[in-house]
Specification:
Length: about 150
């Protein structure tokens, strides 16, 4: 029994160690692993990521537009009022967590964004356990799919 527990414990630690960190920028003067105008760098980083990966979105003078998240990720921006060498927040116009029969962002973490719009849970199935903290959101956080399927948040 002790051997089985040790093997399970080591296996759980090794799966966390396999997570990949990706960087995104939409500013040509601040290159990252995934670059592009608007949200194209984020879309490419998201598509290349597996569940439990981390995406760092650089703060730039440009808005990233709408970010769609459809897998369990940790998504970190530079902050809404960063005190760093660049001094640029990570601006977005909206963030959507999309879930259907083949995608599931449940368990995602979102932090460090200056959001001029809303955060929504979209798709045909409800998402759960999404952690949103240290963001400035000018709009609303929607935790429902439609008016007949309300969630709590």
């Amino acid at each position: 029994m002790k051997t089985i527990m040790t093997i399970l414990l080591l296996t759980s630690f090794s799966s966390v160690a396999l997570a990949t960190v990706r960087t995104v920028s939409n500013d040509p003067t601040r290159p990252a692993q995934f670059n592009g105008t608007g949200n194209t760098g984020f879309v490419n980083a998201h598509n290349a990521s597996a569940a439990d990966d981390t995406i760092y979105v650089y703060g730039t003078p440009f808005d990233y537009g709408t970010l769609n998240i459809s897998k369990r990720l940790v998504v970190i921006g530079a902050g809404y009022g960063p005190n760093n060498q660049f001094g640029q927040p990570t601006r977005v116009s909206a963030i959507n967590f999309f879930r259907d029969g083949s995608t599931n962002p449940s368990g995602s973490v979102l932090m460090g964004f200056l959001n001029s719009g809303s955060i929504s849970c979209t798709g045909t199935l409800a998402s759960s356990n999404i952690t949103i903290f240290r963001n400035r959101i000018s709009g609303t956080i929607y935790t429902y799919l439609n008016s007949s399927n309300l969630g709590t948040g």
